[in-house]
Amino acid sequence: MWFLINSPGNATVHIQSIDNFEWLSKYNTFFKNGNSDPRYTSEMIYLLFYLPEIFPSLNKIVVFDHDVVVQQDLSGLWNANLKGNVIGAVGTCQEGKTPFHRIDAFINFSDPLIGQSFDVNSCTWAFGVNLFDLQQWRTHNLTAVYHKYSQMGSKKPLWNWNVARMPLGWLIFYNKTELLDRRWHILGLGHNSGVDRNEIDQAAVIHYDGIRKPCAISRRSSKSKTVLNSACIVDKSGRTLIA
Question: What is the pLDDT of residue 32?
Answer without folding.
Answer: 56
